[in-house]
Write the structure tokens for this entry.
Amino acid sequence: MTFIRLLLARLETGALLSALAVAGIFALWTSSFLSLESITSILIVTSELAILAIAVTLLMIAGEFDLSVGSVLGLSSVAVPLMMVNYRVAPLAAVVIAFAIAIGIGFLHGTLVRRLRIPSFIVTLGGLLFWRGIVFVVTQGFPVKVPRGNGALFDVFSYRFTNGFDVSLLWLIVWFVAFYVLLTQTQFGNWIYASGANERAARAMGVPVDRVRTILFVLTSVSAGMAGLIQVGRFGSVDATRGQGLELEVIAASVIGGTSLSGGVGSVGGTVLGCLIIGMIRNGLAIAGISSYWYTAIIGLLIVVAVLVNKSTEHFRKAAG
Amino acid sequence: MKISLTLLSACATLLAAALLPVGGVATAAAKDKLVIYSIVHGTLSDPFWAVYRKGLQDAASAYDVELRALGTEVHSVQGEVDLFNSALAAKPAGIITTIPDAAAFQEPLERAKAAGIPVIAINVTDSRPKPERVPYLFYIGGDEYLGGQEAAQKVLSVKKPVEAACWIHEPGHTGLEARAKGWTDEMQKAGIKSDTLTFRANNPTEAAGALKGFLTSHPNVDALFAVGPPPASVALEVLNELGKTGKVTLISFDLTPEQVDAIRTGSLLGTIEQQQYLQGYLGIEFMKLYLDHGFVPGGSVLTGPNLVDKANVATIQAQVAAGFR
Amino acid sequence: MHDGEVSGSSALLEVKDIKKSFGQVRALNGVSFTVDKASVVGLLGDNGAGKSTLIRILNGIYSPDSGEILWNGRSVHLRSPRDASNLGFATVYQDLAMIDQLSIYRNMFLGREQHVTWKLGPFRFLSHQRAKREAADAVAALGIKIKSTETSVEALSGGQRQSIAIARAVHFGGELLILDEPTSALSLRQTKQVLDTIANARERGTSVIFISHNIGHVFEVADRFVVLSHGETVADLSRIETDENQVSRLVREGRAVER
């Protein structure tokens, strides 16, 4: 009985059960769901989404939102080939500049929220539209081809091994470990929880709430840049719509994983599970030949179920702390 | 706690119930039937793809194969590649797909070839010569460049425009670009300058505003080529609002009931259709023939261009209503 | 008494004739009282008597217009909350500055994690074991019974929460705790828990200024009673000198009847 209690106390249990359920349903449905091809397909989608979602989860725990991640992904992934093609910038320099742009954008968002006291929802909603607009302006709507022959550098971000696994999976692991440790094992992590759960109390105790949040905005934008580069490595071209719609998927994954929209509560592992669930559903439905409209309906249902599960197991968590 | 568990199981049952009927069909489906996937880069509810899908479905029942038609939620090359990967994982008998971006599809197509899964390209493809292009068996679809040319030729047959323009609503779509190029080249041969517009048409109100702005600032443009139904629809509306219907000669691509009506009333000079029903139907048919007997046509199978104008619109109207065109 | 000279008395804090005005409003009009080492002083008075202004002055948030504050016999100027806490003032406000969703030990070191972290580059890694242990010690030192410091604060009763906030203040070197309405909204049992904690704190040498509307609660544990009214000290009586009724009357009527 205590083991079950311990299990129920974990924030990630709901997401874990859902992931197992989804995997089970699809595996029974069609045998090819568990094939290597299918699994590697799922993992690629999961990795790209999770690298974004993990950083956004930390920001949500700290009590803020970042709706611009999809657009920042688009901007940084477009910037690289554009610089290489139009300005003859060396690939490595282009990558560095792309990350610098991402850092700058994150810092800008954080500063706007902090100085002008505008809710992050609004600032990053503006960012979503503004940066996407910039992408359209610089590309004129056309996709930009990534010059081939720069294999080595872009392979660092995404490279498909013969067995089907992609380097991006390793990046996911790196992101997961780094952010998990940051959140649960450091002073900064304690500050993240405090800032989101009770901003007033945190400030009263001397926690630099604004600094914490600004740093997290930078981290989400950098993660968007990273995800963008993984996609540059994967596809030979970047189109202007790259990344559109990801912001909601990222929030959905976080919520399914146990993150609370009001801050103070969240789990990196849960978010990764949420992304895995999304990847499995996308892939599973496609294998089964079902229209992708079911995908959106199912994700919507899953979010509500996930929140219900988390609510009902809340008191186990309180007891265990 | 007890109440929540009940609620939980209720939700789980709901979820399963939503999935099972659809799933039951899939598992119950005869394992003996050939499974063929169709993947397109747009939404299946788009009227254009709906006609295509009818072709697929009619052929699938005629040839008794299991059809799995997939599409993306928005025009997304990346989404389409992900779908293609999933389709490969299911190890089907064959895949029919559009190839809107050769670079993005290079690696997945090579993997399909290595896995021995035949791929037929439809609707839009990498049109480089065989040794250079991405691997697929053959192409079924319209010849886009020819289509653009024909559109220009039709316009030139009724008048000599002062200035021309063409509107590509999905920049980067190689097929649309080829159409535009056909038009522009033909116009150039006749000594007429043609602008290319590239704003998206997903939001009709915004697109209308953009087109209005362009036409107002370029009063000499009196011939417009809309390379698909969405821009055609917006253009019809805008010309009407500006009172320029008839003064600006409009010609389009693809066929919808709205365009049919416009041709009849004369606000649209004509439209170039690619008969996408055939793309679906022939796609399945040729795939089955290839799987059964290994037949491969000597080149591309062209389903277009085919010009629809006032002369022949009456005959095809019933077909449009029935969803065949 | 000159600056710098240390008196031999047992007085920890001496407040002498503090005056403070905000524009036309005279909030404090000459408040004086003493808090001895290891003693509990009840600070009473109706709303508007000046208690909050006084507390803010002791916290270094405001500066007095005139008057003197002596800490351990030395005259001090509290220019900021940091000055105040460096000296040894620790205020526990009504909302406790606790994060409900976090565990007791995380709350214990909130904002002061450096005491239980080890550094690696720019990162400070929490030593969970040490934090839990020290938190448990801090809590036990004041006689508070908690099963585990891993429990989240929201699972605790109001009395336990208040007690832990006090334990935190004591643990980080608070010599003089200022408790603002610690027992309001608590049940009888929870109140007893808090009063016991306060008594234990005094046992360990900490002084407490106990602000409350509830004279009965204050009487359970205080050694002295300071009553404020309209910005003036109306009474400064030791436990022996007075009783609940008298103090009640003083609070109700404000100034001693003079007309």
Summary: Helices of chain C lie at 51-58, 81-87, 104-108, 128-141, 158-171, 188-203, 215-221, 244-253.
